[in-house]
Amino acid sequence: MKLRQANSDNAPIPLVPMIDVLMIMLVFFMVTSSYLNLRMIPFTQSEAASPSAPAIAAAGPSDTVLLRLDSDGTVRLHGAPVERGQLVEMLRQRLTTMPNLNVVLLPSGHASAQELVSLLDATTAAGVTRMRLVRLETAR
Prior knowledge:
4 helices
């Protein structure tokens, strides 16, 4: 009597070990990945804030300054529009009281590269050495 071997071509694929491996990979990548620390970006004021008051009081006691570059080239300090000359002077004043001042630059996706370079030059002219350029949206 001859025994037949089971046909291995139609053997079911076990899914439990595959799911276990995927879960281990998921946990590994979650543990090793780094996330953007959103606490470093201060809250912006509403658009209704006085455009003539982007001074130190608007920035608050934080050692981080948020600068937004709009698509039309307007620079906003914590949500309020500010001129380049005022910006340089304000940054110089903040640097005298806080030498570890951090500047976060958020350019719009439609802002021109020249406007961004001009803003970088203005912050560098004020003496800022700790800048971060953050891109939150993609150009369309």
